[in-house]
Design brief:
alpha+beta; globular
């Protein structure tokens, strides 16, 4: 796989919805390609409306930082953090909180990301990891 297809995005969204059910939360799942363009956005019934923007911002952040899961970036923009104020240096919203992981191809290149919003940072991260794993490509980093 060299790109995220709509079919693979549907499979990932289905995996995310199953994982959300296991966590007992309703979420928004946003799957973006390497150009940070949405391939698929799914909002479960009762998922917070704000989670739509949050899931896209998380996915964007993962890609802007070279495929780093957002859980690994948590706190870097806090006062005293190495990137304090960074979110003001870019025009697109970023989210430095757990809930997005990269999607990699068989060679390990980042081909997109899955962002999830609606649960806690830990729940969103686990759900995003489950979705990314469904692509069947290189193993997903699960750090949170």
């Amino acid at each position: 796989m060299t790109a995220i297809t709509l079919e693979s995005a549907y499979r990932a969204a289905s995996a995310a919805q199953a994982a959300a059910g296991e966590h007992g939360v309703a979420v928004v799942v946003t799957i973006v390609d390497a150009g940070v363009q949405p391939v698929l956005i799914v909002r479960q019934d009762a998922a917070p409306i704000a989670a739509i923007d949050a899931s896209l911002s998380k996915a964007r952040t993962t890609l802007y930082f070279g495929g780093t899961p957002t859980a690994d970036l948590s706190g870097v923009t806090a006062p005293g953090g190495p990137l304090f104020g960074f979110e003001h240096a870019v025009t697109a919203p970023l989210a430095f909180i757990g809930g997005a992981v990269p999607v990699r191809d068989e060679q390990g290149a980042v081909i997109g990301a899955v962002g999830v919003g609606g649960g806690s940072a830990e729940q969103d991260h686990a759900i995003a990891a489950a979705a990314a794993a469904s692509f069947g490509t290189r193993s997903v980093e699960v750090s949170a």
